């Protein structure tokens, strides 16, 4: 399988991460991509540089105000003169009868869902590069490749139309799906990250043409806490095209595969033309953000199950944090896909 990758992700190197009131170093580090790259090399996947698609694909998903905010945020922040090394919001407007602010601190609060998406000097460049990686993979699949993997960093599935959060700024999976929509009437995003793909759900919640399916650790006790429940099924014309499958904390391979079977049936009945896999590897038993307990052979089974759906497939990297087997889990899921194809 061809794999799209760029070194441009390195300009985004966030530090701040607030966990239960304790400031730690974020787990979303550039080294993640090095380990994933090793997994690709071990699997003998051919690396491809992304094409630059510009703002067009991003603007299909994100609002003009949000894209302007992200592109200008760092300069406005440093111009304050007394600001910290990363942008962390200190207001959290809930938007009830609110006015879109003009001050950078106001905008920062408006456009961030939580404190886990610090913006630094190279965040915008890296986030844009990640969307090019995802769109390049989608374009390759539209041009005839059976499946392509996109090594996106920063990840994207927690980003809404106009709101960053959970290490995510631009929703790479959503942008890939919107690109695929130029060719296919119906597209599915299957999110296998340990965290609910809340941003993706939000973006497509009222749309009947993109079916969003997420298998994740139960938000009753896990991030993002306020989205990801089974009763969230879409709204308006999108009612019935959002499926959440929350799993008890610690669920292992067999429980996970039962959820994959539920997802497969739902996806089959939707009859999509293409599939985007929001490929978090943080459901691993060894992930530092412990939620589920999928083993390395379990990831192989997940890859096999995805292959059997029989759809042109774009894999978009989401979460998966530093552990000794991060790369091996990527090798495993892609090997499972290829052997079952
Ligand atoms: Zn995750």
Automatic annotation (TrEMBL):
Source organism, top-level taxon: Bacteria
Protein keywords: Hydrolase, Metal-binding, Zinc
Entry-linked InterPro entries: HDACs, His_deacetylse_dom, His_deacetylse_dom_sf, Ureohydrolase_dom_sf
Molecular function terms from GO: histone deacetylase activity; hydrolase activity; metal ion binding
Nucleotide-binding among keywords: no
One of the GO BP terms on file: epigenetic regulation of gene expression
Chain ranges of the Histone deacetylase domain: 27-335
Keyword Lipid biosynthesis: no
Cofactor needs: Zn(2+)
Pfam families documented for this protein: Hist_deacetyl
PANTHER family found in the cross-reference section: HISTONE DEACETYLASE 8, HISTONE DEACETYLASE HDAC1-RELATED
Family: Belongs to the histone deacetylase family.
Protein name, per record: Histone deacetylase family protein
Organism (species): Bradyrhizobium frederickii
Top-level taxonomy: Bacteria, Pseudomonadati, Pseudomonadota, Alphaproteobacteria, Hyphomicrobiales
